Amino acid sequence: MPSADPIPTPVPVTESLPTHPDRLRVNRSPKAFGSGAYSLVDLPAGAVFASITGTSPGRKAYTSVQTGRDTHIELNSDLVYCNHSCAPSLVFDMARMEVRVGDDKPLKVGDALTFFYPSSEWEMDQPFQCTCGASECRGWISGAKTMSADELDGYWLNGHIAELLNERK
């Protein structure tokens, strides 16, 4: 009997179909999780880098982004190559469906495009040991659920993460 699964399989992002060719370049690596995105533009702190469009509903997965308490999306774009950093260059604002430059510093051509995964992820599908090298590196990244208020202090957080943290108190 065919599955009645309402969530489609993510559309793979291909080299031949960049979705943001004026904004970012993707450096692909044969190494697992070694690919990354880099800025092609200079933008001031707080500026909109890109709108999040063309998404599809998803499940908690290493390729998805959490949009609410129990909802995830697949980006279906080259934004999926924006990696984690504990000193992120971007904010993924899931309420506004936009990616913005962080409020603390401008974005320069060539900068790695990164965001702080616990800002959108309550519980990661695939936790990992962070190797971002930032002085404020948080080490083991498994989502906001396992982080203390002190560890999250100073980071921009999506509304659903802030709500879940308040409920945890």
Automatic annotation (TrEMBL):
Taxonomic superkingdom: Eukaryota
Keywords, in A-Z order: Methyltransferase, Transferase
Gene3D superfamilies: SET domain
Domain Post-SET residues, every copy: 126-142
Coiled-coil features, chain-numbered ranges: none
Cell membrane found in the keyword field: no
One GO biological process term: methylation
Transferase in keyword set: yes
UniProt xrefs under SUPFAM superfamilies: SET domain
Chain residue ranges for the region called Disordered: 1-21
Any one Gene Ontology molecular-function term assigned to this protein's record: methyltransferase activity
Biased amino acid composition, Pro residues: 1-11
Name of protein: Post-SET domain-containing protein
Organism: Penicillium daleae
